[in-house]
Specification:
With 232 residues, this protein is of the alpha+beta class. It has a domain of 161 residues: Coagulation Factor XIII, Chain A, domain 1 (Distorted Sandwich), CATH 2.70.50. Helix content is 13%, strand content 30%. The strands form three sheets. Strands 2, 4, 5, 6, 8, 9 and 10 form a seven-stranded mixed β-sheet that branches. Strands 1-3-7 form a three-stranded antiparallel β-sheet, with no helix packed on it. A two-stranded antiparallel sheet has the order 11-12. Helix 1 packs across helix 3. The longest helix has 16 residues. The two termini are 15 Å apart.
């Protein structure tokens, strides 16, 4: 029986790993589920539409939760009012880097206040060893700050810090859906080293775009395996 549980856990973990990364909140089935297409812009091989079900995203601060299976990734968070994600992307948060595979969450990501009451798409673009990866979530922007999100949980083995990444900046402010980056610019290590730190109790997060950037996040591989078994 012990051997069977071990085999099931290993299989589930391997399945999660092949997805590159998953967008846990805003909850999304657009991108991230198909390993073959997650490198397709703008949403990992999927095109949002007005028929998609939305989740609320609070403009004064809401969580963006990711599970990443890479040892290091750079991230840009963006959003658009174009329901098909065709362009006009705005940056929601400074570009940051996660080091260590597992779960991370930014609990207070803000959006333009005048977007409240409108439909849109929140997008995540990651830059890792296997290239650029995309995921999107159809949302309805609403007033106020979000309640505590169950999905926004942080561990202890992932660190986070602000960085510069010229390539990721090409994915905001564009007017077309091609999202083709210009040049070969990649990450720049000149970002601040003290913008994030490890969090032993797993309860701290990161502040909003206009506040202090705090916390480093993670989940141990043992926790991932445990979660995979529970999913089975």
């Amino acid at each position: 029986m012990t051997r069977l549980v071990t085999l099931l856990a290993t299989a589930a973990l391997a399945s999660t790993a092949t997805a590159h990364f998953g967008l846990l909140h805003p909850e999304s089935s657009l991108g991230g589920a198909d390993n073959q297409n997650q490198n397709d812009s703008p949403c990992g091989g999927y095109r949002p539409s007005e028929d998609d079900e939305t989740v609320d995203f609070y403009v004064s601060g809401d969580a963006v939760a990711i599970i990443d299976m890479h040892s290091q990734s750079d991230w840009i968070l963006r959003a658009t009012l174009e329901s098909d994600a065709s362009g006009d992307w705005e940056q929601l948060y400074p570009i940051y880097r996660t080091t260590g595979s597992g779960r991370s969450c930014l609990p207070q990501v803000t959006a333009p206040a005048d977007w409240a009451g409108r439909r849109g798409v929140v997008g995540v673009v990651g830059s890792a060893t296997d290239g650029l990866l995309f995921s999107c979530a159809p949302v309805r922007f609403v007033n106020g700050s979000a309640p505590d999100r169950e999905e926004c949980r942080n561990g202890t083995s992932v660190s986070i810090r602000l960085v510069e990444n010229a390539q990721l900046l090409t994915f905001v402010g564009n007017d077309t859906s091609s999202d083709e980056p210009s040049g070969d610019s990649g990450s720049d290590d000149s970002g601040s080293d003290d913008s994030g730190s490890s969090n032993d109790d797993g309860d701290s997060g990161a502040a909003s775009l206009h506040g202090a950037f705090q916390g480093g996040f993670a989940v141990s591989m043992a926790a991932i395996v445990g979660g995979a078994v529970m999913l089975l």
